[in-house]
Write a structure and sequence with these properties.
- The structure is a single chain.
- By secondary structure, this protein is mostly helical.
- It is 37% helix and 9% strand.
- The chain contains 4 helices and 3 strands.
- It has a 3-stranded antiparallel sheet, with no helix packed on it.
- Strand 2 and strand 3 form a beta hairpin.
- The longest helix is centred in the last third of the chain and has 16 residues.
């Protein structure tokens, strides 16, 4: 863990300053702007297990865990192995693939009230799908 005597932020400050010229408020998400809480964000460099390091070399315990996706820990070897196997087959087909069925079955099995699923890339696509279902149902 980082001690308060060795805590440095010079590189984070430099990168965040440069980001202000590239993105509104220097961030790609308004949640990360820090304007309402004061200060500026720490710029992170890498993660492993339950830990996260910033560009200045400070180490932290990651209590956020990427809001859930890193529940197995960052860079978990089992997850990395599965990702490598999947990536070897290709990253995007733009057409149906068997793994869609596997994921759909997992979602349906995990949530008893779900009979069928539709996978989408964005909230916009999700809303468009809901509108189409509502139109079809109501005529």
């Amino acid at each position: 863990m980082v001690s308060t005597t060795s805590f440095k932020t010079a590189k984070s400050e430099e990168i965040f300053s440069a980001a202000h010229k590239l993105m509104p408020c220097g961030v790609s998400s308004p949640v990360r702007a820090f304007k309402s809480v004061g200060g500026q964000p720490i710029v992170f460099d890498h993660v492993k297990g339950a830990y996260i390091w910033d560009v200045d070399g400070n180490q932290y315990i990651d209590y956020v865990g990427t809001w859930g996706p890193a529940i197995c820990g960052h860079a978990n070897p089992v997850v990395i192995e599965a990702l490598h196997a999947a990536l070897e087959k290709g990253t995007s087909f733009g057409a149906p693939c068997a793994l869609e069925n596997v994921l759909a079955e997992m979602v349906i099995d995990a949530v008893p009230s779900i009979d069928v699923v539709r996978f989408v890339n964005s909230g916009t696509e999700a809303c468009m799908s809901v509108l189409r279902v509502m139109r079809a149902f109501t005529g």
